[in-house]
Amino acid sequence: MSEPAAALPLPESSNSEREALLEAGRLTGLGELVRGAAHEINNPLFGMLGLVELLLREIESGTKAHERLSLIQQSGLEIKRITHSLLGFARVDTEVTEVVSLQEVAEKTVELVRCTSAGKSIELREHYPNEPLQVRGSSARLSQVFLSLLVNAQQALPAGGSVTVQLEQDADWAVARVTDTGEGIDSDVRSSLFEPFATTKAGGTGLGLAASLEIARGHGGDLIALTSASAGASFVLRLPIARPAQ
To answer: What pLDDT is attached to residue 142?
Structure first.
């Protein structure tokens, strides 16, 4: 197994730092707008779904009108699912530290990606153990790691493919793997993969993997990247399992 990539200090580049701060500020403001927009969408949506449900009861099943109303209801429920996922991801307090289920964090983040265009071009697979894996930390920060890894994997599959999220226990460690079926990681970028501001993507800030590594280490764990020409790239997150209080 490859050695964990080292987290390097921020480079002395005022332009890069300024761009990253501006991007972070833009995303913070965008997050507030998303939360507000989701609430504004939900209010009339609930009224619409309630009215459709009443009309479905009044119209004879099997008729064209009933079929059309059913399609409207399905579309409304899909919108409800998307806004619920967005709100669930956005409202969590990043400073709260507690014992959390790593599977719940992974499932919610995968569901969020499925609701977006990023999840439409790829097949998302999930493999979880029978017994829950609990870790101590911030569910919001851990969700940030999974989201970064999933988006990174999706961007490695421009022509489509599959991304697998797998959780397992290894002694006292909870291990999460996010694996894609892409072309793997280019040897030219492996050494700088986790460096802040290092990116090969147009418009990218190069902060996703760097921040994910810092979050992993801040939780007493680590994040490494494995690559294979035949199996794409795999990012492995290791976190200490939370033990019950004595």
So the answer is: 92
Cβ atoms of 6 and 58 within 8 Å: the answer is no
> Do residues 85 and 91 make contact, with C-beta atoms less than 8 angstroms apart?
no
Give me the CATH number covering residue 174: 3.30.565.10
**Number of domains, the chain:** 2
The C-alpha atoms of residue 209 and residue 216 are separated, in whole angstroms, by 10
Domain range holding 70? 30-90
Same-domain pairing of 224 and 126: yes
pLDDT band of 84, cuts 50, 70, 90? confident
177: left (phi over 0), alpha (psi -120 to 50) or beta: beta
13 part of a folded domain: no
Cα distances (angstroms) measured from residue 1 to each of 12, 48, 152, 227, 236: 32, 54, 21, 10, 11
Residues 113 and 221 in one domain: yes
DSSP-derived secondary structure letter, 119: G
Answer whether 0.70 is exceeded by the pTM: no
pLDDT in tens, 111-153: 888 877 665 778 999 999 998 899 999 888 898 899 889 988 8
Contact present, 189 and 198 (Cβ < 8 Å)? yes
Calpha distance 141→148 (Å, rounded): 11
Say whether both 70 and 189 belong to one domain: no
